[in-house]
Amino acid sequence: MSVFAVERGEQDNERIEMISLSETIASSLALNIATNTSYLRAGAALFGSNETISRQTFGRFIDELRVNAGYSGAEGIGWAPMIRPAQLPEFEEALVQSNAATTSVYPRLDERSRDRLVPIKYLQPNTARNRRAIGFDMYSEPVRREAIQEATRRVEPTASGRVVLVQEGGGDEPGFLTYMPVFANNNYRDVKGYVYSPFNARDFLRASLETEELQRDGMGIYLYDTSVAEENLLARIAPQTETGEYYTREIEIANHPFVLVVESTRGSALSYLSLLTLFFGLAVASLLMLVARLMTKQAMEDEKTLNWLHEQNSIRNSLTRELNHRVKNTLANVLSIIALTRRRADNLDEFADSLDGRIRALSATHDLLTQSDWNTTPVEAVVDAELAPYAQTSENMIDRSGPDVELAPNDALSLGMALHELATNAAKYGALSKQTGRVRITWELIEEGLARLDWVETGGPPVSDTRERGFGTDLIEKIVAHELRNPVDLVFDPTGVRCSLLVPVRNRGAFQLRAERARKGEGRLKGKTPQT
Q: Where is the CHASE domain positioned along the sequence (predicted)?
């Protein structure tokens, strides 16, 4: 009975380890894909507002996203327009002019009978491996074509099934792709093309495992497309010992089903504790009491571990929902900025310059939030980030002061956009356009849960009474005021612009609790059992 109880406990422990590992890997895979799909959504929003997608436009998009250092396990990010057969000569001429490695689309049109093509035009980073894919018509291959059609139907990033990437150059290493359709002028019937990312399945799985100590005690890890079958195997990390004991978990990656399998390393042989009990338990009666105590303690620890796993799963689900919410909010802000800037711009250069500055301001605040792991961000850091270009070139033209006030992520983004618009206006027409001009920025807590930031310009050119209302005024008084849930007092006084913003100061408890849970989770993962 003691041997049976020990073995049962060991099996339960092994199963708990397998469940924990599968949950952690699934969350890491989902996070990597969420990062990639956010890049694709941003590209679709930008390219949809451009008449043509040139190499310079695409390269600038890649540079602004700052993804050259890492693509979350992807081979890169590419652009493939949708063209008709009659447009094929024009497309191939564009390949010749751009000095592409391939100057013709393949496979050739006479090998198929279709009314459209989706050839690859750009793929970054510009490596020898990625250059092999230029000119490949993805619509000619059934698996890719099905994913393209599904992405168009859903109007959101969609993953393909198992394919061999063109980059493999004749190899047989499997992978998959994610597609995001780009529509002209928000017309969901007029498809311009697709922003996409190719993934080598083995590299994608290993990139997701690099974030933590995920492979425990030599367990095996398998990733399948749709169902568990040899022909559907995408990637495999071999176990230390093949035992045939598996835990299977179905996951969805970019609206496509995948299956994650974890293989146990525990074989059929008895554990050391079981052998000890078998040889000496019958002779020593007192050992039975010790074993009973050990088993009781083991059962209590197993229960605590299971409770901890449920808690961690709940936290991961909450963080995933939070990530999706923030990505959608950010893309909504970008789309609003694009739409408003386009209505106010008189020509393409003015539109591009205005949009560039506002996207950079949004990116600068995003960098601050990323550095703080999307916890609270100091007001002082937001002010310094948005005024950095002017502080470096001015001589004591900017004066800012205030207490230590921490803002929630969304409120910090809204404040950053407002400061960017005020600074841009001051540099063009106000205090920062003259050496005698001064800008003073102060903030204070006026009551619990609410702070006020004041922007005051002096010494600049007189403010005209007949000035026209611009986009910056609309953005501050409408979008920023709506996001901050408080009115904005913006005054164009003849002596200089003044602006007062009321910013909510959320309770830091929610962010501290999440950080504390993360630290506690790391400690439990390393020790394999929860700490009390």
A: 49-227
